[in-house]
Amino acid sequence: MRPGPYERHRELLQSVVRAIAAGECRRPFTEATGQDAADAGMRSTRTAGKVFRSLLGRPFELGQPGELGRVRTESSPYGLAPPIDYPRCDPAELIAAAGRAAAGWRAAGPYQRAGLAVEILRRLNTRSHELALAVHHTTGQPLQGALRAAGPRAQDRALEAVAQAFAESERVPADLHWKSAERGGQPLQGTCTLVPRGVSLLVGCPDFPLWNGCPGLFASLVTGNPVVVAPHPRSVLPLAITVRVARQVLAEAGHSPDLVTLAVAEPERQVHRRLATDPAVRIVDYTGPARFADWLEQHARQAVVFANRTGLNTVVVDSTDDYRRLVRGLALASCRCNGTVRTTPQNILVPERGFTTDEGHKTLRDLGADLGDAVDRLLGHPARAARALGAITADEVRGALTDAARYGPVLHASGPVAHPDHPYADLRSPLLVRLRASDERVYTREWPGPVSFLVGTESTSHSLALLRRTVARHGALYTSVHSTDPLVLAAAGTAALDAGVHLVENLDDLPADPSSALAELPGSGVNFVTGRFRVVRSRRHAPPSAPVPAPTRLEVDAALADV
């Protein structure tokens, strides 16, 4: 008999659970791909390209309830056509279908749910290059970066969410036994049941739909919650493929495929807002600008909101013992994916008096000029520029590049960069603007695209105070500090703790893309998982133990005879 989904993937799942408990990094999909791509089931780029092209210009079928029509919302920044049309379904019907499927999914238990989640990830892993092409042609990311954001590394991140959710589910004891503190210590017994919160909504990210979306999707599934996926209108296909694979796996296992559905609509319909405020939606996952995160927390009060704000990624420069390495790292971070990666540094805080380096004292003017030169060298070769930059897909990015240049001296102007293979793709070099610390109204706004500000401060202490205040208010995915002074590093660590942000110390490889970004779960740590379920307890008097019957006379005589 064929083993169940948990038994098939038990060793893989348990190895990740053990790694999390030990504080170790375990990346099975990435490791398998690095050792032997064939063993990992990876399709070749050519085969994936054929599969991807077969999707173009055709209806993307899902068999979902409540279909009202078809909708096309995407366009490739690289000129690939024709677009794909998706089912536009009634949001109320999707939520109702998810609710109907929930009881059977809850009854399946954490072992079966976790096993099926790993099976979904395994099948997605075999389509990594196809998913990368989908991300490439919807978000504008260069192909290599798209593979990092949609392939094995993204699947490992989702697997971490599966393992964490499974481990937390296992912590809930099924049976309880204790004695009452009253009534002479009368024995009691009861049960603990993990109860999912309800329908979960994933609001898709336009730039990194799988990297940012899959952890919430799989954490909800493993803890027993059906999921409605509402992708960003600009990048539907990566999540649509994920939803279709999930529905296939669930149906093959005898579960309702409506445990995972796709909600797509024209941008003006604001379907994500309608879904987020539906009383039946009890969990919302979102990664992106703080403005919509604030809206969710204000209006989706019936739900637990896991909002991961991209915010103001900030670099504090105090001193360095490798100036050229620092400059190269900042230049590369500002270029990658045209800044749309949302982990590129926006604010670089440097004392007005300058800072010490292994090459002597450097001023803000020196740093600005050297950064500009490093960017120009990096983008000087067309093929290298195409690998670093991504094609711009949104008018808001173009507008931001024009608008930001008005607020201060431009240290490096943004300009068009030719793509060697796609002449109509809109690639732009990053913009670097000099600001004063008093220009908070400018640099505390989250700017989309490749916009960075070199902000002059009174001192490193002032820089850390700005970091603490601005990041605590507006959020960030990370902050970075460069210093050779242990006291400064300690103060930066305290500032990061106060602001509630991850800290990177003296690393030139800033978290500029998902391959190097901090890989832990988004949101609120363990609460990212435990907030998706409740534990319901029952209690009752323990039945009296059966009395031991007195021995009969025959039994006594037999015992004496033996003696």
TrEMBL record:
Q: What are the Aldehyde dehydrogenase domain coordinates in residue numbering? A: 93-467
Task: Return the SUPFAM superfamilies for the record.
Answer: ALDH-like (SSF53720)
Q: Which UniProt keywords apply?
A: NAD, Oxidoreductase
Source taxon at top rank: Bacteria
**Know the name of this protein?**
Aldehyde dehydrogenase family protein
One Pfam family name is Aldedh
As given in the record, the signal peptide range reads none
